[in-house]
Specification:
Blueprint (H helix, E strand, L loop, with lengths): L4 E5 L3 E5 L3 E6 L8 H14 L5 E7 L8 H15 L2 E8 L3 H18 L5 E4 L2 H15 L5 H10 L12
Parallel strand pairs: 3-4, 4-5, 5-6
Antiparallel strand pairs: 1-2, 2-3
Helix pairs in contact: 1-2
């Protein structure tokens, strides 16, 4: 398809945009300097879509959810700013063991307390997350496909970190 594009990368964050989604891949906790590129990528996508909606996907590969109050406030403002244009926010936590459990619990609590305008969900399995994102995209654009999601995640090398499925 060729529609996914890497928009930003440093040692902590990789931002990928797709036709109607943004993927943020985290290798550590967000810092204040990550807010501006996140805002710019979302603004650019929103303008390109002519005010239409998109899905935001966070993928946590490593690190701890420990960041200062200024970063927390800026990220909350960012969610509020773009929340009205969001079809949903998926949080895929690929950390193993207690770190993964703690991070998923933290994000789930933040989702409950944040009272987001759009649905938000935390996942430990890539396939389940992709299906949830696809449902959001299809509800808005019937031309959406799972290939769009796969392409964005693969561009960010998330495919090599696929979570194991539990049966």
């Amino acid at each position: 398809m060729g529609a996914a594009k890497q928009e930003f990368e440093d040692e902590v964050l990789t931002l990928i945009s797709g036709p109607n989604l943004v993927v943020a891949v985290w290798r550590n906790a967000p810092r204040i300097e990550h807010v501006a590129p996140m805002r710019e990528v979302q603004s650019r996508l929103h303008r390109r879509l002519g005010g239409m909606y998109f899905v935001f996907v966070n993928v946590i590969l490593s690190g701890t959810p420990s960041f200062d109050e200024q970063v927390r406030k800026e990220l909350a403002d960012l969610v509020n700013e773009f929340g009205r244009y969001s079809l949903g926010q998926a949080n895929l936590v690929l950390l193993e063991g207690l770190a993964g459990t703690a991070t998923r619990a933290f994000l789930s609590t933040m989702n409950l307390l944040g009272r987001h305008r759009a649905p938000a969900k935390v996942f430990k399995d890539r396939d389940a997350m992709e299906q949830w994102v696809l449902e959001r995209l299809l509800a808005h654009d019937p031309k959406s496909s799972r290939l769009q999601i796969d392409e964005a995640l693969d561009l960010a090398n998330v495919s090599t970190h696929r979570a194991t499925r539990r049966t």
